[in-house]
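User: Just a sanity check before I run the rest of the batch. Below are the structure tokens for the first item. I only need the designed sequence back.
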């Protein structure tokens, strides 16, 4: 059995809120793929930008477009440390559903502490041959930064697999998260994209008419 099949886990993003409408951000998607689509070492992208700007939506779009490039994709909620640990527990349960004898995950079956479950899952990602996984650490907005003492912050590096392989995407509001390649997600500059979203969410088909339509025409002529 090939390594890819041995470590394969079915694609599922059930933990992520459904996105009813997505305007393609081709540049960001291209930049993410260019960074992660290499064969040397552990690859990492940090998507940063204001809250509600679309970081999670971009990541969902990337995961869906490239799901066949990875043997397994896991979504980890970084809202707080307990949420992150619970995400690791759910990842372990998914792995065991498809690979009941997965090496190193006895901690889950034995009802060990969440800390031990996190370590066991990390060791599963570390295994030789298990190189094509993607971990998405979403909403990492409370990082442990130098000089700041706050017990609610998270040192996310403690939750990375130790192996020199695999791919990681982090979404955060903070540009200070200095890990991997940082890609800023900015406001949509194309007026039409914003109007299409407004039309979809409001149910109004006439949004593109009148002064707004004229503004789009001006932008397209620039």
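Assistant: Here's the designed sequence for the first item:
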């Amino acid at each position: 059995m090939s390594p890819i099949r041995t470590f394969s886990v079915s694609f599922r993003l059930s933990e992520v809120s459904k996105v009813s409408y997505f305007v393609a951000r081709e540049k960001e998607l291209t930049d993410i793929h260019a960074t992660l689509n290499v064969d040397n070492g552990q690859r990492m992208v940090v998507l940063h930008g204001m809250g509600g700007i679309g970081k999670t939506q971009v990541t969902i779009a990337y995961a869906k477009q490239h799901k066949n490039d990875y043997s397994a994709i896991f979504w980890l909620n970084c809202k707080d440390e307990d949420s992150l640990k619970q995400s690791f527990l759910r990842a372990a349960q998914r792995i065991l559903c498809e690979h009941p004898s997965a090496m190193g995950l006895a901690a889950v079956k034995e009802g060990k502490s969440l800390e031990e479950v996190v370590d066991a899952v990390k060791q599963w990602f570390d295994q030789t041959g298990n190189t094509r996984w993607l971990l998405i650490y979403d909403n990492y907005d409370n990082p442990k930064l130098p000089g700041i003492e706050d017990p609610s912050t998270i040192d996310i590096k403690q939750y990375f697999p130790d192996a020199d392989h695999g791919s990681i995407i982090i979404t955060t509001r903070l540009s200070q998260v200095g890990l991997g390649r940082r890609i800023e997600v900015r406001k949509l500059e194309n007026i039409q994209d914003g109007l299409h979203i407004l039309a979809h969410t409001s149910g109004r088909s006439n949004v593109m008419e009148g002064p707004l339509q004229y503004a789009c025409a001006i932008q397209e002529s620039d």
